[in-house]
């Protein structure tokens, strides 16, 4: 097999982690290929930031920047650094032999290394009024840290759906801005850790609606109220609300890997050190492995923590197709740049 037909680096994903990896590998003359996906997970290329409005916490934009515009700028920079981008969704990869094989509906590509940076999608209940063409990003969100400080939420009532640590953390965070925060939970007790339960139960701004669910989001241009149902009595009531936050977890976008990389009990990819995995030449970055921060800036940072292993990347030695690369034949190229 001719090595000229094998890519050095393939990046799967299109968010901040993917584009940061593309910029650094491009500047290292590795000629990366990126599959940015076509409405993968029902999200446009660019990831979750394409579903947000103004981003106020990304460095370099004192006046803020719209999420889609920020991702378009990253995309242009990746291309400028030599990245070839395909708007195709990766359906499968074969990590059992080298070179690895990456497949979409349109093509099959062989590569010596893969960077998985596919992110995670916030779980959302199908509540009337919360859809993408309804009040999503108009008072309805799934990220308190991203959106909680927005002017529309300041000194206003906010609702958080969920009962675990994430819901409690988001509710507690939102008390900085809201006049009142309601946690709406289907069960008669929280699932969160004891310390998180105490934190929200003892907070004067937080009220927990046990055995309740939100049945409808109400508003025209912006959210103005929610309808909640008491699951024990069946009684429904409308309550004023300027914010509604889903906090029922995230789903890492890793189905295409078909279990070839280890995950934790929530499905997040496990890295050994930095971004390396149990398979040499396969790296993970961004929200598909980060269940704690899930921020654009942390995802971008993780895209830099990459080591491309294997002198074969530069054609320094012959690799027998179908056989793993031996550790004796590898060298480590650090993608660090002096600023």
UniProtKB/TrEMBL annotation:
<feature type="domain" description="FAD/NAD(P)-binding">
    <location>
        <begin position="8"/>
        <end position="303"/>
    </location>
</feature>
<dbReference type="InterPro" id="IPR008255">
    <property type="entry name" value="Pyr_nucl-diS_OxRdtase_2_AS"/>
</dbReference>
<keyword id="KW-1015">Disulfide bond</keyword>
<dbReference type="Pfam" id="PF07992">
    <property type="entry name" value="Pyr_redox_2"/>
</dbReference>
<dbReference type="InterPro" id="IPR023753">
    <property type="entry name" value="FAD/NAD-binding_dom"/>
</dbReference>
<protein>
    <recommendedName>
        <fullName>Thioredoxin reductase</fullName>
        <ecNumber>1.8.1.9</ecNumber>
    </recommendedName>
</protein>
<keyword id="KW-0274">FAD</keyword>
<keyword id="KW-0676">Redox-active center</keyword>
<keyword id="KW-0285">Flavoprotein</keyword>
<dbReference type="InterPro" id="IPR036188">
    <property type="entry name" value="FAD/NAD-bd_sf"/>
</dbReference>
<comment type="subunit">
    <text>Homodimer.</text>
</comment>
<comment type="similarity">
    <text>Belongs to the class-II pyridine nucleotide-disulfide oxidoreductase family.</text>
</comment>
<dbReference type="InterPro" id="IPR005982">
    <property type="entry name" value="Thioredox_Rdtase"/>
</dbReference>
<dbReference type="GO" id="GO:0004791">
    <property type="term" value="F:thioredoxin-disulfide reductase (NADPH) activity"/>
</dbReference>
<keyword id="KW-0521">NADP</keyword>
<dbReference type="GO" id="GO:0019430">
    <property type="term" value="P:removal of superoxide radicals"/>
</dbReference>
<keyword id="KW-0560">Oxidoreductase</keyword>
<dbReference type="GO" id="GO:0005737">
    <property type="term" value="C:cytoplasm"/>
</dbReference>
<dbReference type="InterPro" id="IPR050097">
    <property type="entry name" value="Ferredoxin-NADP_redctase_2"/>
</dbReference>
